[in-house]
Amino acid sequence: METVLHPYVPSNLQLENFVANSRTGVSLLVTFFGMLSVFLALLYLLVRHNKYMREDFLCKVKMCWFFSCGFIHLILEGYYFFNYRTLAANNSFLAQMWKEYSMCDSRYIIGDSFIVCMEGITSLVDGPLALYALYAFITHHPNRYIIQLCLSLCHLYGDVLYFTTEYLEDFNHGPYGDAIYFWFYFVFMNLLWIVIPILCMCESFKVLCTSCSSYDLIISNTKKGQ
Amino acid sequence: METVLHPYVPSNLQLENFVANSRTGVSLLVTFFGMLSVFLALLYLLVRHNKYMREDFLCKVKMCWFFSCGFIHLILEGYYFFNYRTLAANNSFLAQMWKEYSMCDSRYIIGDSFIVCMEGITSLVDGPLALYALYAFITHHPNRYIIQLCLSLCHLYGDVLYFTTEYLEDFNHGPYGDAIYFWFYFVFMNLLWIVIPILCMCESFKVLCTSCSSYDLIISNTKKGQ
After folding, report:
1. Taking a C-beta distance cutoff of 8 angstroms, is the pair B129, B73 a contact?
2. Inter-chain CB proximity A169 and B116 less than 8 Å
3. In A48-206, which ranges are E strands?
4. Alpha-carbon gap: A210 to the closest alpha carbon of chain B (Å)
5. Going by C-beta distance under 8 Å and a sequence separation of 6 or more, which residues neighbour residue B87?
6. Per residue in A130-151, pLDDT tens?
């Protein structure tokens, strides 16, 4: 096989038909997160007067989180899941996003089986669940905190596996210690899906415990009254 | 490196210091599940008169499920997580259990990073959570259905990844189609942790939705009354 030069770690990785990105990392990030920011601004305007979260700034921020998750899981990660086999040779905008991200974790560009399956669950399950969580909070649906708990636990489980598998492989799929690729892309970006889900799980747990205690009390009083 | 003969798939797998099991698969399974059965019988006698599940046979069966999960996660999978590096050369009872199981999935004996991390979460998180779920149901703790939901979702997430990663690797770590190793060990034994968690999640979801609806109603009525 012809040896193709590429920027990934380890450098002896064999990537057939690899085509280098035509856009810089900054241009890709600014375009993607710029677009997401426009949607988030519109969403904030939409939920600003929602009667269930009017006075709750943190809840509105949480809505932005759910929307961001839905957007990233369905569009970005959904694209990866359905196109990971042809990524190296592709120069569409989303393919370039993934070729840029693979600089911090080459398991993406080689289609590592754990990464593909985890991204499959994230895009097919977590994505719709995040948008449903948004809908459930906007409509004050009784199951909103249950959905938030399930979504956050899925985030946490997947992300803990994501970090620990790479730790066990001695971080050998990216430039360990690099300020941008290791600390910003690999650690910081993924740490968000550890920290925020833990906060959401704590909130859900607290609310659900209160609801369950109150319901148990009603049932117990009803039984005593009979 | 010296080539060592072993019974695993693929046959060109390099296993340093491999020592063949001294016990048969049947003897290992009968001993382990025999011991578990004694504990389950004792547990059933214990919860038989529990006032919260006296007339609920299915709930008592569920207690047996939680105990089995705790026992298997903590002892069997806990052993794997802390000893996977030395498994091939070890002939202790639990090491032999894993060398037997590896016949259906050699990712265990080679210490595949996804398998090790997933077993780490299972033994360190799911194990204690399963025993806590048992305690929560016996004491009728308000959070019992929340714990059941979290435990079941962890089971489901881990097991879906377990199956899908092997599917993506064309089932090339075991004798595909073999009645015992593929269908019984790999498919049936692991399918339990898909089917039962889905049933538990449905039950939890139903109970938690009812509790949350009732609590939302109380809060809404309190606000109207103010």
Report:
1. no
2. no
3. none
4. 8
5. B80, B95, B98, B99, B102, B108, B109, B111
6. 999 999 999 999 999 999 999 9
